[in-house]
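Would you mind writing out the residues of a protein together with its fold in token form for me to study?
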Amino acid sequence: MTKKEEKADYNEKPRQELVKLGQNVIKEINQQKNPKIDLPVRGLSNVIYDKDSKTLTLGDKMAERFFFNVAHAKKFLQTIEVAAICKSLLDVKKHASLRDVFYMAKRTIPNTKINLVDEQKESDKAIEDLELITNFSREHLHVNANKMGSVAGKVIIEDMGDTIDWSRLGSGGWSIPSNVEDITFKKVDAEYVIYMEKAAVWERLHEDRFWAKHNCIIMSSQGQTTRGIRRLLQRLSTEHKLPIYVLADCDVWGWYIYSVIKYGSISLAHMAEEMAIPSVKFLGVTCDDIEKYDLKKHFIKLTDQDTSRMKQMQQYEWFVKNKDWQRQFKLMKEFGAKVEIQALSSRGITFISERYLPEKIKGKMWID
């Protein structure tokens, strides 16, 4: 199959699934049945930790959404409307943002004063439902999220016919798109990838040319990792066998970011195969670093929300039998505090790039 044929197939299969959804609804209407949509239950109760693959997967619990049901009717209509929007995008081979889809769906239902969608989270959830129904990601359905990440390193890619060198894009680096499926790697010269949750830390490493001095790739987002970034990390891991290290705050939220990259997320368990990276390692910041680098003076007291979240995470199956992580939870509880990555700057503005990261990577001081 040629690249052109592969791309056509890439667009046609999701379109066929959307058409099938519409045909099934019409068939039930013609049979004078109550139209319904079948979809897997999305939530912790239907998420399974696969010990062999070390990733989260979706279970086999199913739910039914009926049109003639007061509790279901609006969500039913939202799903059908967003499905129609996605099909129209595939028909004309155009992409839309999540915000675009919201505005395309937002209107008043005829002969009522009710809006089909009032908030973007409603259309976003409808798109997630369509992922489960069709078995295709939102990117396959031609819906993209905002760009929220940067990357730099000795890598050359081809994207939409343009050749892009990640080492020659100035202070901002390459802006990672929502959909990275069509990117072709022309050259990858790196020994590993460091992903960090904070753009400010990425900017520090980029200005210090850490990626050039240590022959690696540096990548960041702003907070929770986007799907485009997770997929790009997975491609670098599987296609180019690069180790992936996560650099985040020493708090449960930073640790959860690591968990999502490694095992997959509960809300996207159905996409773990395309997103999760079981081999990823947590590089820091750890509770041991607080002691080693004298960071206690930069403690931030844990909130009730922090404590509650930590208790939840301790009970996750993929953490509960991990002695190293249980030790980290215990230490943080004893500290009653957390520490941000930027606390390392108290040791010197270039401390993180000149000493902290080189020491930890050389000494293999990470947590699996």
User: Anything to note?
Assistant: The chain has a mean pLDDT of 90. The CA atoms of residues 155 and 244 lie 16 Å apart. Residues 149-362 form a domain with the Dna Topoisomerase Vi A Subunit; Chain: A, domain 2 fold (CATH 3.40.1360.10). The chain has two domains: 3-144, 149-362.
